[in-house]
Amino acid sequence: MTSDPQLYITLALSGLAGLGMLTGAALSGWRSWLALKHRELAELHRPEVAATAIPNAASRIELADLKERIRKLEAIAAGVDL
């Protein structure tokens, strides 16, 4: 095995350069992801979007329950046995 210091320096610098490029790419991706989430949050807090926002799970369950109750009341009014 050779103990050429120039080989070790070249390998170390190549590894360091590769690590730097990988870190730069990861940082760029992280910033882009944060910008995306920031835009999503800003979009949700706009007044015209807030009024048409998707209801949460509890309100959807409550709405489904009310629809079921209305269906049963309509069936009773029509004289249908459930």
The CA-CA distance between the termini, in Å, is 88 Å
Structural class, from secondary structure content?
Answer: mainly alpha
Counted by DSSP, the helix tally is: 3
* Count of individual domains: 2
Helical proportion, percent range: over 70%
How would the global form be characterised?
rod-shaped
Query: Segments where pLDDT lies below 50 for 5+ residues?
Result: none
Q: Count all strands and give the number.
A: 0
Q: Roughly what is the average pLDDT, rounded to an integer? A: 87
Largest sheet: none
Approximately what portion of the residues adopt beta-strand conformation? under 5%
List the helices and strands and how they pair.
Layout: H1 5-44, H2 47-50, H3 57-78
